[in-house]
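Data availability (excerpt). The following record was deposited with the supplementary files.
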Amino acid sequence: MDKITSIIIIEDHPVVRNGLSAFFTAAGHWKVMGTATSIAEARKLLTSVTADIVLLDIQLEDGWGFDIIPWLVTRSEQKTNPLPLFAVYSAFDDYAHVRAALSMGVKAYITKRRSEQELETALRKALDGELHIDEAAQQKLQSISDLCILLTKRETEIINMVKRGLSNKEISSQLGISRRTVENILSCVYDKTGIKSRLELERL
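Predicted structure:
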C-alpha cells in the first residue's frame, strides 16, 4: 500500500481549489488536511494543522501566496517543527515569479496548464528530492539567462542598483549620469530581457 502523503491546498479560485481537493482525495494515497483561500485563512489553518506538502497559488484574495513561506519558516523555527515541502501551482510562468519561488525554497513549480495527474507526478518527484520546474518556466529561465549574457557592464550595474531598491534619481547621482540616461538604459534592459516592469526587475 502506498504511503499516505498529507497536503494543504492554498488556492483562491473555488473551481480549482475544489477540483484539486477532490482529485487528491479520490487518488487514495493523499490526505487533504485542509484548504484556504487567503493568507489569513492559510495562517489560521497552518497554526493548527501540519502536512507533508503545502501547495500554494501565488495570487490570493488578500496578497501573495509567497508571503506564507517566511511566516511558516519563522513559526517552525520557534516551534521546532519540521517544514513542509513547498510547491507552487500557478498561472504565472515568468522569470521573476519562478526565481522568487526558488529563492524561498519552493521545490516544485507547476503551471496551471498542467493536469492534476501531471501535478501529482511533479509533487512525487519533489518528495523524492528532485527539484521540479515546469517545462514552460524552465524555457523562460534559460531565455533570460541567455539574454543577460548580452547585457553591458553598465546595464548590469544599473540592474543591481534597482534590485537594491534605488530610484532612478539615486542611481543617476551615484553613477554621475543623467536620470534620462538611466531611463534609456533601463528601457534597453526591458527590451533585451522581455521584463515588463521595475517590480519584475527587482525580483531578478
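Summary of structural features: Residues 150-202 form a domain with the Arc Repressor Mutant, subunit A fold (CATH 1.10.10.10).
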